[in-house]
């Protein structure tokens, strides 16, 4: 069964550094998402992306965050200047449609900001 | 902003018995509900969903019940198996953003005891 893949599985960075989290969504999917889960808390929506632009974003997704689909297969999340509170599991997801559709999640990237 | 709430952080059930996981929501605009299962170090995996036009959906050992008047849904697993031990997340979305903006509950850790 096709799956969403994320790299790296674990990223450690110093506060203030830029990080790029990478994802390869399922190939025939059109909608792409980033969610995050701070340790012990709920999974939170960050952003959705369709037709090469952001379609929805949450309050968490401020100017420090950006997303890009640089080619036909990758979908990236960039955090420009990481803060300690950005430490979390970041999940990429994709779906073929947006109504009545389930999201397929990757295994996540654990981001640790020191 | 807790639009989706899972009030039981954990649940322990004996193998072979029924597991019942509960979820409440406050946003009456939600029209699609999903249950995801999550193992450690993996992303959430879709389990079962239900549209607001239905009150029950069954898939093998898993049944989801929706009570719209009470804004409550539940997931029944019967019989429970050791492999069902995981964190279960309830999620919901509304008609406008659709799956572009899933709202998750905090999760319930289910432990199946042999």
Poorly predicted tracts of residues of chain A: none
* CATH homology superfamily of chain A: Immunoglobulins
Task: Give the averaged pLDDT of chain A, no decimals.
Answer: 92
State the fourth-level CATH superfamily of chain B.
Immunoglobulins
What is the number of E strands of chain A? Answer: 11
Q: Assign a percent range to the helix content of chain A.
A: under 10%
Model description:
The complex is a heterodimer of chains A (114) and B (114). By secondary structure, chain A is mainly β. Chain A has a single domain (5-113), classed as Sandwich (Immunoglobulin-like), CATH 2.60.40. Chain A has strands at 5-7, 10-13, 19-24, 31-37, 43-50, 53-57, 65-68, 75-79, 88-95, 104-105, 109-113. In chain A, the strands form two sheets. In chain A, strands 2, 4, 5, 6, 9, 10 and 11 form a seven-stranded mixed β-sheet that branches. In chain A, strands 1-3-8-7 form a four-stranded antiparallel β-sheet, with no helix packed on it. With 114 residues, chain B is an all-beta fold. Chain B has one domain (4-113): Immunoglobulins (Immunoglobulin-like), CATH 2.60.40. In chain B, 39% of the residues are buried.
Short synopsis of the structure:
The complex is a heterodimer of chains A (114) and B (114). With 114 residues, chain A is mainly β. Chain A has strands at residues 5-7, 10-13, 19-24, 31-37, 43-50, 53-57, 65-68, 75-79, 88-95, 104-105, 109-113.
Features:
heterodimer; A: 114 residues; mainly beta; Immunoglobulin-like; seven-stranded mixed β-sheet; B: 114 residues; six-stranded mixed β-sheet; five-stranded antiparallel β-sheet
């Amino acid at each position: 069964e096709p799956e969403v893949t994320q790299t790296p599985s674990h990223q450690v960075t110093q506060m203030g550094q830029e990080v790029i989290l990478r994802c390869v969504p399922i190939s025939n999917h059109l909608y792409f998402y980033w969610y995050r889960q701070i340790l012990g808390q709920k999974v939170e929506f960050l952003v959705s992306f369709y037709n090469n632009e952001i379609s929805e974003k949450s309050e968490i997704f401020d100017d420090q965050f950006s997303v890009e689909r640089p080619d036909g297969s990758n979908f990236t999340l960039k955090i420009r200047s990481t803060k300690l509170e950005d430490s979390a599991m970041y999940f990429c997801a994709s779906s073929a449609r947006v109504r009545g559709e389930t999201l397929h999640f990757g295994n996540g990237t654990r981001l640790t900001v020191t | 902003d807790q639009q989706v709430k899972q009030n039981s952080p954990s649940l322990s059930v004996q193998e072979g018995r029924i597991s019942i996981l509960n979820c409440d929501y406050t946003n009456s605009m939600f029209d699609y509900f999903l249950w995801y299962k999550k193992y450690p170090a993996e992303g959430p995996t879709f389990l079962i969903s239900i549209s607001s036009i239905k009150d029950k959906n069954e898939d093998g050992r898993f049944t989801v019940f929706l009570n719209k008047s009470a804004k409550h849904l539940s997931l029944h697993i019967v019989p429970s198996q050791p492999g069902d031990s995981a964190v279960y997340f309830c999620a919901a979305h509304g008609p406008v953003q659709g799956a572009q903006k899933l709202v998750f509950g905090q999760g319930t850790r289910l432990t199946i005891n042999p």
